Amino acid sequence: MDILWPVFTMGALSLLFSLGLVFAYKKLKVYEDPKIEQISEFLPQANCGACGYAGCRAFAEAVVKGEAATSGCPVGGEEVTQYIADALGVTAEKVIKKIAWLHCRGTHEAAKNRGSYLGISTCHASHLIGGNKQCSFGCLHFGDCVRACPFDALYMGEEGLPVVKEDKCTACGKCVDACPRNLFELHPASQEIIVFCQSQDRGASSRKMCKNACIACGICSRACPEAIVIENNLAKILDYKKIEPDKIPEIEKCPTNSIGRIHKDKNEG
Hints:
The protein is of the alpha+beta class. The protein has helices spanning 4-28, 34-42, 56-64, 77-88, 123-128, 144-148, 174-178, 203-209, 219-223, 248-251, 264-268; strands at residues 98-102, 154-156, 162-164, 184-188, 193-195, 228-231, 234-237, 259-261.
């Protein structure tokens, strides 16, 4: 009998604790909308952060709660947007396809060197000491953006500048974040004209440093003043939609080709 009392006591305590756990589970259980799992499984699982959340699962939770737009996943595009809208029973938002473009034409041949850089071969490291080019606004040529792209949508071209593979670009924005000189921007795929320069130096100085730099001559802004202005010694497109097709030839009279069509050869052919 002496041994039975401890056994009964332990059994009773085990039963009591078990009942307590069951009660706590039911009382403290957090309900999760099954749509979160449904949407999460359909997402690309890139976990790139382009949606503004920590990963695909976090985005799924946010979109189900109404905290994120159905079109918030740029990697998924229209297909994912439509799927999310159908799952939530709402109207799908319009998806504007965007592509990352480099605002620089400072190739090895065009942009003059100011010295030899022997440090760590990254743009961020080179940027800390001003880079090895005379232009302090141009591309540093070390390819941080290429290494940051999770979709193999960038490669370093023979001229020393990163080249975008349009069919692979998802507008995730990783290249935008990777560039220490903010040379990448996400533009609607339909936008054909951009400014291929970010230099804010005075025209004469810019031209000496890089023959493809904007010299703020004003040809483009005079051709289309309602869409293009000159600010801080640099051409700036205020509204691409206001650029009429018949104005494009005038805009492209730019003496340094620092503004113009992205696909000029394709459009001419």
